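Quick start: what a row looks like.
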Amino acid sequence: MYHKQTRILVALDCIIFGFDGLDLKLLLVQRGLEYEKGKWSLMGGFVRKNEDFDKGSSRILKELTGLEGVYMEQLFAFGDVNRDPIERTVSVAYFALIDIHQYEEQINTDYHAEWFPIKNTPKLIFDHQKMVDMAKEKLKYKAAFHPILFELLPEKFTLPQLQSLFEGIFDSQFDKRNFSRKLQSTKLLIKQKDKDKEGSKKGAYYYKLDKRRYAANFHAILNLIPNPGNLK
């Protein structure tokens, strides 16, 4: 029945966003295959005959970066006819959010895996920049309507760290005092007794997310977001 149909390769590409406390970053590797070899790329590979997409994306991520146990979510299927100049290939893209400090010891350097600030990434092969741009838009939506944003933060974080994260995701500058006031008004955070004193002598108090209150009133986070009506 299928013998007259065209065989098409299926690839998986992984878009990994991370936050180091100061900057939102993207994890890239240098391509190992001959065409475009050495150029910067998302973590990618081909689906094997005996695996589904989720398992395949986890395998590829581990092989290229050493990362494992990372939650990833399917983003979109990219199937432009000429997206891969070597052979007709459809790519199913996944994206993930991680706290860089939780995983920094896992990352290997076999494929030159490297973190780049999201505002200063190198030119990427094929349509990988298109994938990243779509993932960034998805990240904005997820940050507004789901607690997934806090996957990028350690369990305890400061308000300056949270502000830096919001600025990176929404590509906007926030007034420090106004941001803090709006954030406090949401009542979604639990202030801790200890401080982070690395940034200044005075230090900044740590906070934790009140997960129970967030689940009941997650829309409160929209008060912090510029133009929330434009989110898709």
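That is the whole record. The chain has six helices and ten strands. The first strand starts at residue 9 and ends at 19.
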